[in-house]
Write a structure and sequence with these properties.
Layout (H helix, E strand, L loop, with lengths): L2 H4 L2 E2 L5 E4 L4 E6 L2 E6 L5 E5 L2 E5 L5 H22 L2 E8 L4 E5 L2 E5 L6 E3 L5 E7 L5 E7 L2 H13 L10 E4 L15
Antiparallel strand pairs: 1-6, 2-3, 3-4, 5-6, 7-12, 7-13, 8-9, 9-10, 11-12
């Protein structure tokens, strides 16, 4: 039995959920609007300020979709009320980041600057901490999009294991390796 799928999704006061034709779920809130096409086999029902997701049979395919769609709809509700954010840390001498006109400019030790244009619905901000590392914040209402944009920025210069230089998530642990030792 899916433990995640059985949990009802609580509706906040400011959120309105519309279950439309062809099982299209539209969630509207103070931060924006998101929609999702749910498989026609999965049944959605509203009642008592809660949205419940039900599956028709115990088939493996229905079991796997049950928890998935419940989690996706719950993320949509959380996104339009609170939003999502990922923080990235830039570590390295001369490694910099700045935002101008919504475009992220990165200097990551290459011979050229890297310009990153975020997709629509994603906001990027940079905090320069004096004496500390630069923090890049990726914010938005779509959890998948926020994670993907953060992963793309991290992929421009992943942290290397010897000095730890590069772009990493703030809470990420990078395993460090010992360098070469001088032979006598």
């Amino acid at each position: 039995m899916s433990r995640v799928g059985l949990l009802p999704i609580p509706m906040v006061d400011k959120v309105s959920v519309d279950i439309g034709k062809n099982n299209i779920v539209t969630v509207k809130g103070p931060k924006g609007e998101l929609s999702l096409q749910v498989d026609p086999d999965i049944k959605l029902s509203m009642g008592d300020g809660e949205l419940t997701v039900a599956r028709p049979t115990e088939q493996k395919r229905h079991k796997s979709m049950h928890g998935l769609y419940r989690a996706l709809i719950n993320n949509m509700v959380t996104g339009v009320t609170e939003g999502f954010r990922k923080d990235l840390e830039i570590i390295g001498v001369g490694f910099r980041a700045s935002v101008s006109n919504g475009v992220l400019e990165l200097a990551l030790g290459y011979s050229h600057p890297i310009y990153f244009v975020p997709p629509e619905g994603i906001k990027i901000s940079v905090v320069e901490a004096r004496g500390k590392n630069t923090i890049v914040t990726v914010e938005g209402i779509d959890r998948q999009m926020v994670g993907q944009v953060a992963a793309k920025i991290r992929g421009l210069r992943p942290p290397e294991p010897y000095k730890g230089k590069g772009v990493r998530y703030v809470d990420e642990y990078v395993r460090r390796k010992a360098g070469k030792t001088a032979a006598r």
